[in-house]
Amino acid sequence: MNILPRLLYLFQTLPIPIDSRWGLSSLKNYFRAAQLKTVVNWCDTSYQAHWKTIEESMFSSPIQAVLMDSNIREGIDKVCNPWVSCTLNIWRKVVKEFKLEQDLALFKSYSYDSDFVPNKLDSRFKSWSAKGLSTFDSLIKDGNFISFDTLKQKYNLEKQDFYRYLQIRHYIKTTIGVMSNTNVELVTLFRQAYSGDVDTRLISFLYNFLINKFPHSTDYVKMLWEKEGGMCISRDEWTQMWERQWRSTSSNSWREFGWKSMIRFFITPCQKAHYDGNPPVCWRNCGHQRAHHTHIMWDCPVLRTHWKDIHGTLQGIFDCTLPLDMKTIVFGCIPLKPPT
What we know:
- The protein has helices at 3-13, 27-43, 50-56, 63-68, 74-77, 82-97, 101-104, 118-121, 124-131, 148-155, 162-176, 184-194, 202-212, 219-229, 235-247, 252-262, 269-276, 293-299, 304-318, 326-329; strands at 140-141, 144-145.
- By secondary structure, the protein is mainly alpha-helical.
């Protein structure tokens, strides 16, 4: 009985900014953000909880190493805890979807990094982790390598560790890089986590990060219509087209069909030709050799009589002269001053 209120509290109390998406929230990304909060807690050195201790004990390798190295499959394949497995799977999907591997490479553990060969030959790297030097990033400050003398004094390293320091430094320079210029916000968050200084508003931060990774604008769709139809659609007209698709009917089925038509949801012969190898000819047998969306919905000769009839009917109803073009008849973009 207490599960639903908890979920409702999670989703209802998070901020929903009103922007060009009309403030529509994404429950999928809210759920993802809630799961990724656990990932940050795993990496947060200052975060203490019984559940964290229990979940960390399920792995033979540190769970932080499992998170940052996609080649350590035991983190997903061998864990029996469904909560941990769910979080790891979501984390891996987010990393793959947004191509975060290179940005997070600095937070790999050099003791367990599958691509760092020296750690397979020298077990002393693991003793560094016990002293607090757990990731490649722990050897870097402000985009520069920390000197070995500084690390030696702070972490009680020995002289013989200098060679290991050189190995790690060479690997970072040649493979990872000392600084990431993309996804800076996420890199900063994990850097704060490993230093034990994380903001408490984690879910809001992660939600905004996920939302901002998606292209919210439909300008690319508008550009495709303009290119195919040889027309110019202003930003205001584009917004009006979407509004009219919704307001012109109370039927959700027709609203859905209008949205699919506008967003170019339906597969055309041009699109199908990319994966089945068949020529992109119009399936109405009109003879056109490149049947894209504009042809299927407007330009096809088979449809000309249909659209002319609709054009004449609309002019008769509204007692005015309307242009016979796709922008007006199909998309409902009525000129402010129709030609008389």
